[in-house]
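Let us practice reading a record.
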Amino acid sequence: MSEPFLIGDGMTGGYGKGPDILHDCTISVDKGEIAVIVGPNGAGKSTGMKAVFGMLNLNKGAVRLDGEDITKLSPQDRVAKGMGFVPQTHNIFTSMSVEENLEMGAFIRTDDFRDTIEQVYELFPILGDKRNQPAGELSGGQRQQVAVGRALMTKPTVLMLDEPTAGVSPIVMDELFDRIIEVARTGISILMVEQNARQALEIADKGYVLVQGRNRFTDTGQALLADPEVRKSFLGG
């Protein structure tokens, strides 16, 4: 079998000189696939994704993108390789307009990126309507759309989302998930950490349940939703 498009393979590590948070943890996503990381608070979900993005030191394991070992690359260099990352908080420039936020997302590009901005507006029509409005005036769900749109401006092959639906209403969450599915349909791989585990697994091609920095369950989203132990321990029955 060929290797997944992006894989954090057997990752062990933590922040700085602190203790290991991840223990032989493996996370991967294929082209155009949605992979979701779920688990209890403190399970190492966001840490696992940050490790894939190069934001902490690995003591063991490797990260490979499209067959290339990128373990030693900085997050900035990984962006240049095609990885987009949307942190959970402080992910927009509040005093800048929506359009200026998107333009900031194109910082590594030397070509004309107007077409990409229009594609973002097609994906998130509300942003087109509010393109000249300061991003800080938008609702929580609209801000998340700006953050995702800005990450898409680099034309990534992989989009990594850290709890994209945190703090938004169920209606907005459903809408954001719909947009994420649309992004994946364009061939972009999505790796997502999500607290709303049941809803996230419903749209996931692949799901990872982490507990204390270790892989506890790995399967398709539907198989995990149907697993009695997963349901009882992590999905509220």
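A brief commentary: DSSP finds ten helices and ten strands in the chain.
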